[in-house]
Specification:
By secondary structure, the protein is of the alpha/beta class. The chain folds into 2 domains: 1-39, no CATH class; 41-242, Rossmann fold (3-Layer(aba) Sandwich). The chain has 8 helices and 6 strands. The protein has helices spanning 2-12, 34-39, 91-100, 108-121, 137-143, 147-159, 183-190, 218-229, and strands at residues 82-88, 129-132, 168-170, 194-196, 206-214, 234-242. It has a 4-stranded parallel beta sheet with strand order 1-6-5-2. A two-stranded antiparallel ribbon has the order 3-4.
Length: 244
């Protein structure tokens, strides 16, 4: 029945793949066709920095990280204990992240990728609360929803771990960050952007902080620092994608 219903949807309500323009075969694929999904390679746990999840480069170039290291030079000064993403911010993942900024929807393929990434990384071990990166109220009114909350809700549902959408607030509006901004510019724009509300509710807890994209790490680091100031025990990070 599921195959029949999806075939009918594809026939009467065709959706063009956001990458190649071909028709999307079934609802599970969301906005990207099966061929494009098949061409996308998620991260492999064995090839990642053990701390921040940055991937090693391919065998034809100098590796970014030696496998004997626990962390890389990039993340050594970041205060989270562990970070993981499903894959690189390009092709399939980029299309889904951009779509998520306008539509509060995670397709089945993307949900499966989230579940697999969490399982392979043991990221949820000891997690007591899941907290999404907050949007400022002005941005929330404009967008109508917080895309980080959509991802966090999915993880909460999969793992049966409580979701806390209140404790971390974004109290300072910031300019829309673009990939062209360097780490210093992004860091300066985020100073004082976050505040912990009711810190006693999260004190001594291990938190999974969730966002859509890990770009330079400045947003995540700023939020992590505020959580640690509120006496959170440990902060781990999950994002859909990672810019490399």
């Amino acid at each position: 029945m599921k195959q029949i219903s999806e075939a009918l949807l594809a026939t009467f309500f065709p959706t063009e793949c956001h990458l190649c323009g071909q028709l999307v075969e079934n609802k599970a694929c969301g906005i990207v066709c099966q061929n494009c999904w098949d061409s996308y390679l998620p991260f492999k746990e064995s090839q990642l920095c053990q701390k921040c999840g940055y991937p090693s480069l391919d065998s034809n170039t100098k590796p970014y990280l030696q496998t004997s290291q626990k962390d890389c030079n990039y993340c050594r000064d970041m205060n989270f204990s562990l970070a993981r993403a499903c894959g690189v911010y390009q092709s399939v993942m980029k299309a889904n992240v951009l779509y998520l900024k306008t539509s509060a929807y995670l397709c089945e393929k993307l949900s499966d990728l989230i579940e697999n990434t969490l399982a392979e990384s043991n990221l949820l071990e000891s997690i007591e609360l899941i907290i999404p990166i907050a949007l400022h109220q002005d941005r929330l009114k404009e967008r109508k929803f917080n895309q980080a909350e959509i991802i966090a809700e999915k993880i909460s549902s999969l793992a049966k771990i409580p979701l806390d959408k209140i404790s971390l607030a974004r109290v300072k509006p910031t300019a829309k960050h673009r990939l062209g901004m360097d780490k210093i510019d992004r860091s300066n724009s985020l100073k004082g952007a976050f505040q912990v509300i009711r810190p006693r509710l999260i004190e001594n807890k291990t938190i999974l902080l969730v966002d859509d994209v890990f770009t330079t790490g400045t947003t995540i680091s700023e939020a992590t620092n505020e959580l640690l100031k509120a006496k959170v025990k440990e902060v781990k990070i999950f994002t859909l994608a990672r810019v490399i």
